[in-house]
Amino acid sequence: MNKKITLIASFLGLYLISAGISLLVFTYVLGKPGQKGEEAGKKRARVDLSQPKIEECPINGAMFTSEEKKIWEERRPIIAIIENHTDSRPQSGLSKAEVVYEAVAEGGITRFLGIFYCGSIAEEVKVAPVRSVRIYFVNLAAGYGGNPIFLHQGGANSFCPSCPGGVKPRGQVAREVDAYAALDKLGWRNGQHGNDMDGGFNVGFPVVLRDQYRLSSEPAAWEHSVVANLDEVYNEAKKRGFNFEDEDGVLWNEGFRLWKFEDGEAVSSPTATEISFGFWDGKSDYDVSWKYDSSTNSYKRSNGGKAHTDWEFEKPQLTAADVVIMFAKEKSMIDAEGHQYYEVISSKAGSALIFKNGEVVEGTWEKKSQLDREVFYDKNGDEIVFARGPIWVEILPAGNEVSY
């Protein structure tokens, strides 16, 4: 009897010690409070960037070195959910994304879906704050080849351990917005073996951790504190068998729809130099403007009336070679938890505006199925050719006004 008590006590002691250590590491591993502002951006290139940029990134057409291509050809894209609450700005890592989608997540507050592949190789990239997923982001992510690495922290779901049958009451979470159900149907959620990496469920340190002092010596709210290290994400993906090809020898890009690209060239007399729009009325903190810079042939982003920057890499203002306005049918507050729904899968032509090279192209978009990547066309039905570089896709409720 005494031996049994001793064993139980020893087990509990070890458990409490390990739990305490885990909490300390999870919260403070990035350093002491106050260090983040001083250290942000001090990254060292890991490849020789003086080499010629002759390799085209398949995601957005940007040009990279052969050394970088050699690395990305051993990997598959990381797709991350990044929040945009005013208290979460500036975010970390957005400037390294090939494509960024923005849509309202809840209450007029927008959220980002970042596609990371080629631009996150040369330097260590930290992405933050990682947040929960919505089903329309799942639907967009599903267009990026077979089983992309999908990174998020929780999501809309109907699980409820304390409810009868372990499921929330009818009407609490509408079936059409259940992101976990969509991930299950895709086969992405498979515990610690799937390509879905959920910081609230099946992955932890060192892939994701809590850092409430990312932006300052004052602690951020707990929900704004999840940070991911993309190197560690790739290490975990490798352990799970998700490299450029999976354990069955299937390449991630089989069936992946490549967009068309060309070298961007500023026109002599640009006609669309300032773009501005809002997502919801009364939510000016999330209004967006893009200002064209002819010297770089790119658009600079402002959010809520302020320059929108990346907290890392010497805090550059976020830029895009192409800004796409993708108008989508919106359903608002469709369940008791107030979830949104955007119809981003449609074989019927939706309206779109494509800004590049200082001009605007009026066009359409279509995404025929969940596994198809959306495609954009001009008024004549010809596929849009994007200027090489970062592409931002702004998903606005159909009928919203855009000034330019």
Automatic annotation (TrEMBL):
Regions that span the bilayer: none
UniProt superkingdom: Bacteria
Upper lineage: Bacteria, Candidatus Woeseibacteriota
Pfam families named among the record's database cross-references: DUF3048 (PF11258), DUF3048_C (PF17479)
InterPro entries: DUF3048_C (IPR035328), DUF3048_N (IPR021416), YerB-like_sf (IPR023158)
Name this protein carries in UniProt: DUF3048 domain-containing protein
Natural source organism: Candidatus Woesebacteria bacterium RIFCSPLOWO2_01_FULL_39_10b
UniProt xrefs under Gene3D superfamilies: YerB-like
All residue ranges annotated as the DUF3048 domain in the record: 72-159, 285-393
